[in-house]
Design brief:
Layout (H helix, E strand, L loop, with lengths): L1 E5 L3 H12 L8 H7 L8 H10 L3 E5 L2 E9 L11 H8 L2 E2 L2 E2 L5 E9 L8 H13 L5 E7 L3 H10 L2 E7 L5 E8 L4
Parallel strand pairs: 6-7
Antiparallel strand pairs: 1-2, 2-3, 3-6, 4-5, 7-9, 8-9
Length: about 190
C-alpha cells in the first residue's frame, strides 16, 4: 500500500535524490526519454534541505521506501537554487488573470517523479491530490514549468488540471511551458 506524506528526514531526501539521479537524461535511453519523460534539474542534499525549511515535499512511500515525489518550492526559496532563479524571474513577468504571477501567493511544483516500477498505477494523480490537500489553504495555485520536449509530463499535467499560460525559450535554447493548477477558480 502506498502512503502519501511529507518529507521530514534526510533519509527521505536522499531517497528523493537517488530517484532523481535515475531519471535524468544522461541515465536514460532515447526511447525512455520519449516514452517515460525525464527530469531536467539535479539537486543536492543541501538544496532539498533548504527547500524543506520553507515547505515539505509530498512523497509516496511503499513501506519505508520513497517511490515518488513532488517537490515544493515557495517564493522564499527562489534564491536557494541558482539554476532555478531564471524560472522565478520569468514568473515575475508573466500575467495571469490580469496580474503578474509575482502578485499571487503560489507554490512551485519543483519537480515530480515516480519510480519506473510504480508508473501506470495512478500514483501521480493521487500524489497531486495529496499536494493540493496539503497546500490549497495556504496558496492560490500551484505553478511549474515543463520542457516542451517532455510530452509525457505535459500530457500528465493537463490531465491533472494544469493549464498552459505562457511559453518561452531559455538561453540554452530549451522551450518551456509554464502551467498553473488554479485552486481558487476550479
Amino acid at each position: 500500500m502506498i502512503n502519501y506524506t511529507i518529507s521530514t528526514t534526510d533519509k527521505e531526501l536522499c531517497e528523493i535524490l537517488d530517484l532523481q539521479k535515475r531519471n535524468l537524461p544522461q541515465r536514460l535511453t532515447n526511447e525512455e526519454i520519449q516514452s517515460q519523460g525525464f527530469l531536467t534539474v539535479s539537486h543536492t542534499l543541501e538544496d532539498l534541505q533548504k527547500m524543506n525549511v520553507y515547505e515539505h515535499n509530498i512523497i509516496m512511500k511503499d513501506g519505508n521506501k520513497v517511490v515518488g515525489y513532488l517537490l515544493a518550492m515557495s517564493k522564499k526559496s527562489r534564491y536557494d537554487i541558482p539554476i532555478l532563479i531564471p524560472m522565478f524571474e520569468t514568473f515575475d513577468n508573466v500575467l495571469y488573470n490580469g496580474k503578474f504571477i509575482s502578485q499571487y501567493n503560489y507554490i512551485v511544483v519543483g519537480q515530480v517523479c515516480i519510480d519506473k516500477m510504480y508508473r501506470g498505477r495512478g500514483l501521480l494523480d493521487e500524489s497531486y491530490k495529496a499536494y493540493k490537500k496539503h497546500f490549497k489553504n495556504k496558496y492560490e495555485f500551484a505553478i511549474t514549468e515543463i520542457a516542451t520536449a517532455n510530452q509525457r509530463s505535459i500530457n500528465a499535467h493537463k490531465r491533472i488540471g494544469f493549464s498552459h499560460i505562457h511559453s518561452y525559450t531559455d538561453i540554452s535554447n530549451i522551450e518551456w511551458s509554464i502551467v498553473i493548477w488554479d485552486w481558487q477558480n476550479m
